[in-house]
Amino acid sequence: MSAVKANEQVACVEPIDDGSFSFGADSEDCQTHTFFTDNMYEAYLADPLAKDAVIARLVSMSVASLTDQDKIGLMPDDFRERIVVLLRPAGYGESIPGVPAIPVVKKPFAGDMVVLLALDSPDSLAAVTKEMLGDVDMQESELYALAFENTRERVDELQIQTDKDIEFVSAVSGLATGHLSLPESCDADTAPYYAVVLDRDTYARTPASATKGVAALASYLVKARKQNAGFSQTLLSCDSGIWSAADVYALAQ
Fold first, then answer.
1. Do 83 and 117 contact (CB within 8 A), yes or no?
2. Same domain for 132 and 55?
3. 64 is in which domain, residue-wise?
4. Each residue's pLDDT tens digit in the chain (253 positions)?
5. Same domain for 149 and 162?
6. Could you tell me the superkingdom of the organism this chain comes from (predicted)?
7. Residues facing residue 49 across a β-bridge
8. Strands (E), 39-191
């Protein structure tokens, strides 16, 4: 745990994983806000000389959140335009030993993945917490429908790299996994395929008919399970409009 000064108050900061952290104005409550830093890291990679500016933006956003005490833990006024979806591991927010679980809003997807609600901004993606829902006059199902709609509009162009039968998909917007979770990414008209979420904004996919591609993804996950590693250990199967977890051991043969 670390602390920073914000308006003469001690702000508690705790890591969630390599790409996100939570913080709060009270040193006894670090779960007021959750920030994803993927977009900022991408900005740094694109221009390493702008590192100080990128860090300054993150600090500015954090301090701005903390100094507006009336809005701590509340849904922002413009949430209807910003709320989006992301795919994350089911244990997201619960994986740091000794750190209280962060009550993020999520629902099951398939295997070890869940669909997470988040707020999009030019510099970061911030998880929506259950506390924030108390200030919103909408059902959770309505929020997800709105988040799917916004994700379609905000994902922008997908970046696709192909290696033999496997496509690796990402997006500058940071919403590639959110795009994968959209209903139309696996509907009744979609040809069967398999996918693996590799990190916070990259997934791999291959047609179910591409035997070598399927075996390669399954073999990767078999190894990940043996080492208890990887962002996800599930081979997602899209078939007849339904997502499910495939048997990686059978498909790796």
1. yes
2. yes
3. 2-153
4. 233 333 334 457 666 666 666 666 555 666 556 666 666 666 666 656 656 655 655 555 554 444 343 344 557 788 899 999 999 998 876 755 555 667 889 999 999 999 999 999 877 788 888 888 887 888 999 999 999 999 999 998 899 999 999 999 999 899 999 999 999 999 999 999 999 999 989 999 999 999 999 999 999 999 999 998 888 999 999 999 999 999 999 999 7
5. no
6. Bacteria
7. none
8. 83-89, 106-110, 113-120, 125-127, 158-163, 166-171
